[in-house]
From TrEMBL:
It holds the Pfam family HemN_C. It comes from Lysobacter daejeonensis GH1-9. The keyword Glycosyltransferase does not apply. This is Heme chaperone HemW. Residues 2-239 form the Radical SAM core domain. One of its GO terms (molecular function) is metal ion binding. GO terms for biological process: porphyrin-containing compound biosynthetic process.
Length: 387
C-alpha cells in the first residue's frame, strides 16, 4: 500500500500565560515582564521557513494558534505572522483560522483587530461559569468577565466560537455542571469542548489534589447528563469531548483525529508530516523553552527531535486518534494514511467487534458506546505488534 498525502494544517504555539493554572501541563510559562512578541513572530517565520521544504506545493487547510495564551499576542503581531505565513504557504479557500483566547485577556478593540488579521474562529477557555470553581482552578477571570469577553467578540463579528468547559471540578455537583452548560448555551456558541478535569503529572493539582473532586461514578453521571443536555440544545457529539452545531465541527482538530498532517511552529510545537517521496511519516518537535527556541529558530538547533514512525507503530497511532471520533473511520482512509493494508489489522478489528467495542459496516468502522467508554482498552489492541 502507498502512503498518500493527507490534508495539511498549521499549528502555531504561543508559550506564555498571565498565570500558570494549577491543573495545566501544557507548554505554558508565566509571563515575566512583557514577552517579546515581535521577536517571537520573527522566530515563528524563521521556523516556518526552515520547515517549508517538507510541505512544498501543498495547501494549508486550517491554522490554529494554541497555547499558552495566544490572545496575549497583540492583533498586529498575529497579522504580521499571518501575512508572512500566507506569503510562504498557500492557504486553501475558506481556511479555518482559530485563536485560543483566555477571557481574562480580552481588551476592547482586540477582537476587531484579530478579525481584520484573518482570524475567523475563537476558542475561549471558560472552564466554568461558577466563580467558586474558577477560583479553585486558579483562573485569572470570573464568570462575568468570561461572558463579557464572549459578547465583545460576537459584537466584533465573530460568529464561530468554541467554549472550553471542564467538568468533575473540585466541589462541583451535577446541578452545578448543568448550570455551566445552561450559561454556555445562553451565549449561543457554535461549538462546546467539554473536558473532564484530569490530574496531569507534574502539576500543582497532581502534587496536592484539591478536595472535593467527584469520584468516578459521580463524574460518569455528570458526563452522561451533560451529553444529553448538549444534544437537546443542538450540539451533536462528534468526538470524546467535542460537540458542535451542524456544520461547525472544528476542521483543525478533525484533521488530527483523522491522522492528517500538520506543521508545528513555535516553542514545543509538534508536527506530523507524510513524506510521499520517502514513503515515510515524520514527527518533528521544537525546543520547549521559549528562550532556547527563540535563540535557535530557523536552524536545526531549534528542533527538539525528529522521528520516523515505523509501519508497525502506525495502527496504534491511527486508532488513538480515529477511535475518538463518534463516526470512526473508513478502512480505505486507514490504508491511505498509514500505508498499510486493511488486512493487516483485520484480526484485531474482528476481535474488537466480538468484544462489542467496535462495529463494522462494509468499509466503515466505528466505536460502539461501550467502546467509547473503554477507548484505552480498544486502542491497546493495536499496540506494538508487527502489522
Ligand atoms: C491551552 S488551553 C486553552 C486556552 C487558554 N490557555 C485558557 O486556558 O483560557 C486548552 C484547554 O484545555 C483544557 N485543559 C487544560 N488542562 C486540563 C486538564 N488538566 N484537564 C482537563 N482539561 C484541561 C482547558 O479547558 C483549556 O481551556
Ligand atoms: S491559561 Fe490555559 S494554557 Fe495557560 S496555564 Fe491556564 S489552562 Fe494552561
Amino acid at each position: 500500500m502507498m502512503l498518500t498525502t493527507p490534508p495539511l494544517s498549521l499549528y502555531v504555539h504561543i508559550p506564555w500565560c498571565v498565570r500558570k493554572c494549577p491543573y495545566c501541563d501544557f507548554n505554558s510559562h508565566e509571563r515575566r515582564g512583557a514577552p517579546l512578541f515581535e521577536a517571537y513572530v520573527d522566530a515563528l517565520l524563521a521556523d516556518l521557513d526552515h520547515d517549508l521544504p517538507l510541505v512544498w506545493g501543498r495547501n494549508v487547510r486550517t491554522v490554529f494558534f494554541g497555547g499558552g495564551t495566544p490572545s496575549l499576542m497583540p492583533p498586529e503581531a498575529i497579522d504580521r505572522f499571518l501575512q508572512g505565513a500566507s506569503a510562504r504557504l498557500r492557504f486553501a479557500p475558506g481556511c479555518e483560522i482559530t485563536l485560543e483566547t483566555n477571557p481574562g485577556t480580552a481588551e476592547h478593540g482586540r477582537f476587531e483587530g484579530y478579525r481584520a488579521a484573518g482570524i475567523n474562529r475563537l476558542s475561549f477557555g471558560v472552564q466554568s461559569f461558577d466563580d467558586g470553581c474558577l477560583q479553585r482552578l486558579g483562573r485569572i477571570h470570573d464568570s462575568a468577565e468570561a461572558e463579557a469577553a464572549i459578547k465583545l467578540a460576537q459584537d466584533a463579528g465573530f460568529d464561530n466560537i468554541n467554549l472550553d468547559l471542564m467538568y468533575a471540578l473540585p466541589g462541583q455537583s451535577l446541578s452545578m455542571a448543568e448550570q455551566d452548560l445552561q450559561r454556555a448555551f445562553a451565549l449561543r456558541p457554535t461549538h462546546v469542548s467539554h473536558y473532564q478535569l484530569t490530574l496531569e503529572p507534574n502539576t500543582v493539582f497532581a502534587a496536592r489534589p484539591p478536595a472535593g473532586i467527584p469520584d468516578d461514578d459521580a463524574s460518569w453521571d455528570i458526563q452522561e447528563h451533560c451529553q444529553a443536555l448538549l444534544a437537546d440544545a443542538g450540539y451533536a457529539q462528534y468526538e470524546v469531548s467535542a460537540y458542535s452545531q451542524a456544520g461547525r465541527r472544528c476542521d483543525h482538530n478533525l484533521n488530527y483525529w483523522r491522522y492528517g498532517d500538520y506543521l508545528g511552529i513555535g516553542a514545543g510545537a509538534h508536527g506530523k508530516l507524510t513524506l510521499g517521496s520517502e514513503q515515510a511519516i515524520l514527527r518533528r518537535w521544537k525546543h520547549k523553552h521559549p528562550a532556547t527556541y527563540m535563540a535557535h529558530a530557523g536552524t536545526a538547533a531549534a528542533i527538539g527531535g525528529d522521528e520516523r514512525v515505523a509501519p508497525e507503530k502506525r495502527p496504534f497511532e491511527y486508532m488513538l486518534n480515529a477511535l475518538r471520533l463518534v463516526d470512526g473511520f473508513a478502512l480505505a482512509e486507514f490504508a491511505a494514511r498509514t500505508g498499510l493494508a486493511p488486512a493487516d489489522i483485520a484480526p484485531r478489528i474482528d476481535a474488537a467487534c466480538s468484544a462489542g467495542w467496535l462495529e463494522r459496516d462494509g468499509d466503515l468502522v466505528r466505536p460502539t458506546e461501550l467502546g467509547r467508554r473503554f477507548t484505552n482498552d480498544v486502542v491497546s489492541l493495536f499496540l506494538d505488534e508487527a502489522a
